[in-house]
């Protein structure tokens, strides 16, 4: 079965988790996406920073409840990246790329690549 087109994929911003249908634009990266709203927020943050911006200790300043609330969002992004990887592997297979080459590119054996991405048992 051929890889799904971008139009058929459930693409969400990797930062805010909004679906592509809820934002004006989504920019694709290597297995991740960012929406125009998050880009705008990043631009505001960068514009407001002084030359020596301190590092923000994210988890150190969060309560246990905040960390637990954040975990599903991280899991969702991880699942999206995994789904995107499967699509890219399928695109390579659609072009006739062997499981050996795919495995080598991912630092795994041919058998491991086939087992993880073929959809067969």
TrEMBL record:
Q: Where is the ClpX-type ZB domain?
A: 1-54
PROSITE patterns xref list: CLPX_ZB
In terms of Pfam families, this protein maps to: zf-C4_ClpX (PF06689)
What UniProt keywords are attached to this protein's entry? Chaperone, Metal-binding, Zinc
Determine if Endoplasmic reticulum is one of this entry's keywords.
Answer: no
InterPro entries according to UniProt:
Znf_CLPX-like (IPR059188), Znf_CppX_C4 (IPR010603), Znf_CppX_C4_sf (IPR038366)
Annotated binding of Zn(2+), by residue:
13, 16, 35, 38
Highest taxon listed in the record's lineage: Bacteria
Q: Does the keyword section mention Zinc?
A: yes
For this chain, the family text in UniProt reads: Belongs to the ClpX chaperone family.
Indicate what this protein is called per its UniProt record.
Answer: ClpX-type ZB domain-containing protein
**Which organism was this protein described from?**
Microbispora hainanensis
């Amino acid at each position: 079965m051929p890889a799904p087109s971008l139009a058929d994929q459930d693409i969400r911003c990797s930062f805010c988790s909004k679906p592509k249908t809820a934002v004006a634009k989504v920019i694709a990266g290597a297995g991740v996406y960012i929406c125009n709203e998050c880009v705008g927020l990043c631009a505001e943050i960068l514009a407001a920073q002084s030359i020596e911006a301190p590092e923000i200790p994210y988890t150190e300043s969060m309560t246990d409840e905040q960390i637990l609330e954040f975990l599903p969002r991280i899991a969702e992004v991880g699942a999206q990246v995994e789904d995107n990887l499967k699509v890219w592997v399928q695109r390579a297979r659609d072009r006739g790329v062997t499981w050996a080459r795919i495995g080598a590119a991912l630092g795994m054996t041919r058998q491991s690549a086939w087992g993880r991405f073929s959809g067969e048992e």
